[in-house]
């Protein structure tokens, strides 16, 4: 234990904020900080939405919810410059989002309508996404 504190004092969670209240009915599948940014994070949920959150300055807050998928969002990734989010959904679509204003930039359906389970940007070229 650090100093003269007890176990319960070390794990008191004083000052911990919960920013995922908007996803009460469905599981949050993933939480990820933006690249080289300790105050900006996003999460995706099986309710079909993503949330972009700001942790500081001030109290943590949900900046926006990204809505449009017809089923649960199984995965997402930040672009290297944090100006685009890509999301994969059980509805068989991949979407590109502008996290600054929450709009869907592009919707790409799977040709067979299969559920999409994971996605990632190519690290050196944000024009290439693997699903």
Summarize the structure.
3% of the residues lie in helices and 43% in strands.
How would you sum up this structure, described in words?
This is WDR13 protein. InterPro entries: WD40/YVTN_repeat-like_dom_sf, WD40_repeat_dom_sf, WD40_rpt, WD_repeat-ST_regulator. It comes from Nicator chloris. Keywords: Repeat, WD repeat. This protein has one helix and ten strands, in the order αββββββββββ. It is mainly beta. It has one domain (28-130): Methylamine Dehydrogenase, Chain H (7 Propeller). It has a four-stranded antiparallel beta sheet with strand order 1-2-3-4, with no helix packed on it. The protein has a four-stranded antiparallel beta sheet with strand order 5-6-7-8, with no helix packed on it. A hairpin with a 3-residue loop joins strand 6 (85-89) and strand 7. The chain is globular and about 60 Å long.
Write the layout of secondary structure elements.
Elements: H1 7-10, E1 28-33, E2 40-45, E3 49-54, E4 61-67, E5 73-78, E6 85-89, E7 93-97, E8 104-109, E9 120-122, E10 125-130
Antiparallel strand pairs: 1-2, 2-3, 3-4, 5-6, 6-7, 7-8, 9-10
CATH fold descriptor? Methylamine Dehydrogenase, Chain H
Count of domain modules: 1
Unreliable stretches (pLDDT < 50, length at least 5) are: none
The tally of helices reads: 1
Measured on Cα atoms, how large is the radius of gyration?
A: 17 Å
Helix content: under 10%
CATH superfamily, called what? Answer: YVTN repeat-like/Quinoprotein amine dehydrogenase
Strand order of the largest sheet: 1-2-3-4
Proper CATH architecture: 7 Propeller
What's the average pLDDT?
88
Q: Beta fraction of the residues?
A: 35-45%
InterPro entries: WD40/YVTN_repeat-like_dom_sf (IPR015943), WD40_repeat_dom_sf (IPR036322), WD40_rpt (IPR001680), WD_repeat-ST_regulator (IPR051350)
WD repeats: 66-107
Pfam families: WD40
GO cellular component, one term: nucleus
